[in-house]
Amino acid sequence: MTLSSEDLLAISQLMDVKLESILESKLESKLQPIRDDIRFLKEQNEKDILPGLQSVEECCIPMRNDIRFLKLQSENEVLPRIQNIEECYLSTYERYKNGIMQIDAMQADIDIMKNVVMKHSDKLKQLA
Asked: DSSP assignment, residue 74?
């Protein structure tokens, strides 16, 4: 006895239906504990974690206000003072830089004057 391709197709469809129902029931039985765990975790989250998170958020509100105050204070008070200090240091630096050049020039002039005075002193001693 040989089976025709129509017979084989019918058997295949029957097997598919039977296997699908078996696989579906096995899959459902394996998924149910996972679903239960997820439901438990959601409930646990609502009971334990959310209230704790809300208390953390409530604690953050004063810190946010403090941070905002510090930013404003930094912008309105500290930065202008730092800029003023910087301007003073820069102008002082420029004066000192120019003063150092003047001091070097005066030192050169003094050295020349020392030599001239010593030569003149020697000439005056010789004349006297």
From this structure: I
